[in-house]
Each structure stands twice: as structure tokens, then as C-alpha cells.
Amino acid sequence: MKSTIKFLSLLIFLFTIYWSFSDIIPSASFKDDINNSDTFSINNALSHLKKIAQKPHSPGTNEHRLVQEYLVNELKKLGLQPEIQVETVFNNQWKAGATVENIITKIKGTSNNKSLLLLSHYDSNPHSSIGASDAGSGIVTILEGIRAFLAKGEKPKNDIIILFSDAEELGLLGAEAFVKHHPFAKDIGLVLNFEARGSGGPSYMLMETNGKNSKLLEEFLKANPKHPAANSLMYSVYKMLPNDTDLTVFREKANINGFNFAFIGDHFDYHTELDTYDRLDRASLIHQKEYFTSSLNYFSNADLSNLNSDKDVVYINFPIIGLLTFPFSWIFPFILIAILFFCALIFIGIRKKRLTAKGIFTGFLPFLIALISSTVISFALWKLLTFIHPYYKDILQGFTYNGYYYITAFVFLTLWVSFKSYNLFKNNKPLDLLIAPVFIWILINFAISKYLPGAGFFIIPVFVALIGITFYILKNNKPHTALFAFISIPTIYIFAPLIKMFPVGLGLKNLFISSIFTVLTISLLIPAFQEYKKKNLWQKLFGFLSIIVFVLATSKSDFSVSKKKPNSLVYIQNSDNESAFWGTYNKTLDSYTKQIFNSDFSEGSITNAETKSKYNTRFNYYKKAPFNKRIKTSEIEINLDTIIGNNREIWLTIKPQRKINKYEIFNNKKISISSLTANSAIIYDTLKEIKNETLLVYHMGNSDKDLKIALKFNKTDQLNITLNEISNDLLSHPEFNLQQRNEKMIPMPFVTNDAIISTKTLSF
Description:
The protein has a 15-stranded mixed sheet that branches. Strands 15, 16, 18, 19, 20 and 22 form a six-stranded antiparallel sheet that branches. A hairpin with a 4-residue loop joins strand 1 and strand 2. Helix 2 packs across helix 4. The chain has three domains: 24-318, Aminopeptidase (3-Layer(aba) Sandwich); 327-555, no CATH class; 562-764, Macroglobulin (MG2) domain (Immunoglobulin-like, Sandwich), CATH 2.60.40.1930. The protein is an alpha+beta fold and 764 residues long.
């Protein structure tokens, strides 16, 4: 009987873990009802995706134009009247600009209420990303969702605006153009943005608001999404990432609230040529479809005029009920109640001789040993793994192809360390072992209440554990393990997905966070395992499993056709001193990079050569090259150079002599600029002191013929700038004869790659 009950407790643990993951994403299996024209068809959406995600389609490419034409035609087939908004804009945060071409249309509602905006971007990341998930998945979700919505023949109360934004990958520029310059922007009450930061996994809901979140969450729940995946800690994590979305522009520039729906799994595909139609997880697309359908049906008829609120709420996925919510204002009272409950139980436990001071003290030792040692081991072990496999550092996303194996292996290793630590104190009573982790959890909740209230749901495991302690005291330390396992369901359900989410979202260098969460969670469950006579069995099992999964991870560490190695080559030509160099961002060299870096190369970087990048990545190796390539550089035409009062005004036209993808201009000397415009778009219009920093980055679009710059600065200052001209044609330029990548390689994302950079200094 006892063995049956213990086996039942194990089944409860395993089922809850499975349940916690299956509840936040629909099944990938689906059956389209092709006979029902007013139902969202996944096959229709996939058909669109297959057509728009064939090649890279960043602004300035012919494929970008083809994708644009396809989307415009499809919107027209739905009876809509799309327009192309052409606008030159700059994002001052990144000083990046382009002439964007947004696709915009409207479905007229029956009222004059605030409008609902459906948003995704149709450009792919330069220069090699296919963009099937990011954000082709969002585009086709909206396209097919609107088709099904219109097929119902129902008129919405609110105007529905559809924005397929351009140049999101260049600095959220399409959203910037819409918010600043389009008349529709002033009427928007809510934005639904569909995004991706990988090619699979659950789609998480992330709110964007300048105010409090309770009203937004209340309305989201009224929409009744089937598989909501959300918690109030996630937005804090999201803000830690070097990422924003188009929705950020609406919040910051127009104070418009919205929801991001984005999946982040399989992060290794993000911004690469592996972001393809075939690699998109169908379950992720179905999840986007569910969010879209429920949200559109509700928000197209809801009052969007006032979604601001005066209070924030904690929310978390919870068994059966979906999302559990409570106000931030309840966090501290919950902590006080937990403390009183905790103290009362200790008092009663000591009085009934279920607890002793010695037992409580010694109960701290295994917990702290497990927590500290597993954290240190996980942190150091990942450092060791990147030393053993240096090519992991060439995956700039921070998540390797075998990353899920590593997450599993590190969890098993942490469990082994935890059980090893607790087995050193195997004579301790289960109740003694619960006091220490509950005390630490309460301290964590104190810190949360002050610094990170979005994690206020961390109080839930405390109350769960206190209930468990109560049963132990009432049952004289001998409750059924199955009962304890059942009580612990909320703790496992909440934290199992978080253990996986952190290294997926933040990179494998943060595996130590998963170890911390694992120890914190298992410490509240350890009494159930202490009931087993052969306690060493668990330690041996988890040790064995960790070894097996580490071996599997190692066996899958090599690159292949489906797991391609990112690499890079860049040619830099300096016209000032007639010098030339090769550069690579790679830590490890391969057959592609070794065609240049085979000998006589140096470690390090080249000043002003890498160009701007997301992670400020620098060259790891460079090599001097002969200055013998006939690379055409832009002509510089001075249209105006005059002094008016205390200011000097210079107008320049930069005329490309080859296909330029991007211009970067750096300022080399201190100047006081009072205005700066590029192609008539304002970058600065107030006095600003600038020294040794980027003036602007301009991405040449389909309609650009040249770059016109106008500067006004103090007449006593000297304008000294470095102009970088970047063209992504290294592998096709007639002056070069480079070996192409093999089938196990891809261009490294997030950096200027496969590029010719010509640089020169200009003084005025």
C-alpha cells in the first residue's frame, strides 16, 4: 500500500509538470474546416507564408517589393483599400533611419469610438533572414484572421486598422512613421501586435502600457483566450532583453496601450536564414491564431476609450482557472499573513514536539548547501562548456541548437546536487527540512515586494508549503506523500515552465537562474522524497540522468545541415590611407573563414570598421589586405556651406556609385549641433553637444537614390566625420572570388556580414 501511494505521488509530480507545459500552448495537430469560409484556416495562413517567406526581404531588396505587392493584392481581394505610407523617419535612440513603406488599410466600424489596430511587420532582418516566423507568422495570422472575420458579414463597432509595418528590423521605423505622421494614429485605443523571437514554443502575452495594468488584464481575460501564456514577471524579463517591438513606439510616442503576442522558442533560428516556412512550429502559429481570433472578436466591439487604470495586478498561469490575479497592494499583506502563519506553526510545532531548535537549524544546512553549490556549479559549468566548445560563442543569440538538452541536463544536475545535499542530513525529519526553504522564500518575497512586484506570485508556494507544514504537524510528521504531492501541484505548475523560460529567453549563460529556481522548488517538495527508505535512489537516478543528457547534448553539439554554423567575412577599404583589411566576428575559424584567415592574421578589432550592431559585437580577428580592389565610393556634393550668425550650415548630397545598403556617419570631433536632418527627416532640432559618437545610420530603401544631409552647428567648431558605406555584396562582387559557404553554414546574424565597407574621413 505504501509503495502504491509513493508511486502515486511521483505520478502527480510528473503529470503536473506535463500539465503546466501543455496548458500554455495548443497541440500542433489540427484539422482545418475547409468547408467553413468564416473560420480561420491554418492551411490558408501557411499558404500565404510559403509565398512571402521564400527569400530575405529587407527594405531595399527586390524581394521586399514583391512581398509588399503580394500583401497589397491580398488585401484588395478581401475588398479592402490598402495604401502605402511612404515616409522618411529616424529612431533617435539608435539614430537609425530609412524611407519606410507601410501597408495600411481600415475596416470601418459602426461607431465613432476608438479604433483597434492590428499590427505586424513585413520586413525581414538584413541581410539573410528569411523572416517566416519574425514576423511572417504575424502577417499571415492577421491576413487570414481578417479574411475569416469579414466572411462572417458582421460589422464591428470599432474601426479596425491593419498596419503591416516596414523597417521594424531597422529600428521600429515603420511604427515611428505611422505614429508621427499618419492621421489614423490619433484615433487608436488599443494595439494587438503579433511577433516572434524564435521559430517555436508558446506565444506569450506581454502588455505595453505607461500606466497600470489591471484594466488591460481584465479586458484580456474577457476576450477568453484558450491557452493564455502570461505572468506579471515576464514584462520585467522582456525589458531586460536588448529588444523592443513596434508596440513600444506606440506606448512611448503616443501613450497607446497594447498587447504583444510573441513566441520565443527555438531562438537559434532568430534572424537567420533558418527562419523558414518549414521550421516554423505549427503549434506556435495555432497559438497566434487563438489569440487573434478571441482578441479580434472581443476588442472590435469593446470600449477602447479608457484602458488605463489606477492599480497594477499580479497574474500567473494557474491550474484549472487559467490566470490567477490579485492586486499589487495585496503582496505585502500576504507576506505578513504568511509570516504570522509561519510563526504560529513553528510555535505549535515546538510545543507539540514536532519541531526542535536543533532540527530547524540543521534544516538550513542542506538547503543552503544545495542552493549555493548548484548555482556556482551551473555558472562555472557553462563557462567550462563554452571553453570546451568555443564555437558556441559564435551563436550570438546565446541559445545553442542543443540548448534544450542543456536545460534538461542542468536541471537533473541541480536535482542531483540537491538530493546529495539533503542525503547528508538523511536523519532529519521531513518537517525540519521544510522550515528553512519557507523562511528563505519569505525573505525573497520581501525583496520582491520592494523591487520586483511583478513576481508577487512567489508568495503562492509559501502558502502551499505552510499548508504542507500544517499537515505534518497535525499528522505527527507522517502524512501521506500523495497528499503532500497533491498540495504541491500549484508550486510545480507555476515554476516548471519558468525553469525553462529563463535560459530560453535570456540565453544559456543564465542557466544558473534555472538552477536557483529548481532548488527553490524542490526544497518545498523534498519531504515527499524523504519518505522513501532508499533515499539515495533519487540521488543516483538524477545523477545518472544528468550524465545521459549531457552526453546527448555533447553528441548533438556539432553543426549539420539542419543546425548550421554562423560565420562571417567583411572587407574594409580605407580611402584615407589606402589600406584594406579583412575582418571576422567568429571566435572559431572554419573552411569558409580560413580562405582568408589561414595565416598572418591578428586578434582584435579595427577602429570604426564593425559598424553598429545589436550586441555591439567586435571583430575577433583581422588581416591586412592589399589595396587593389576597384570599389567605387560615393560622390560627395556640397550644396550649401554658409555662416549665418553664430552658426555654420552645411548641406551635403551623398551619391552612391554602387548598390549601397547602409550609410553610417560617425562624428570624430566635439561639435555643438543645433539641427541635423537626413532626406528631410529631422534627427536633431535642439542644441546638442556631440563627440566621438554616431551621427546617423541610414538604410537605403527601394525609393532612395541618394542621401541628403543638412547640418547646422557652431561656426567655431570643425566638422570631422567618418563615412562608412556598406554593401552586402561581398560574395557576388566581381572584384572578389570567394568560396561560398557549404550546406552546414549560414551568415552570422546581428552583425554587418558578407559586406564591403568603404570608409573615409571628411572635414569641413
